[in-house]
Amino acid sequence: MKHSNIGIRTMTGFQYRYNKSIFFRAVYEISLYSFTNSRSVDGFSVINKGNRSLIGAFVDIGSNTVIGDRIEIGGFTGFGLLWLTSPFTEVQGSVASINTRSETKAYETYRLGGFASYRVNKKFALYIELQHFNALRRSHVFDSKLGGTNIALGFRTNLSNQKR
Question: Which residues of 26-41 are buried (b: 16+ CB within 10 A; e: fewer)?
Answer without folding.
Answer: ebebebeeebebeeee
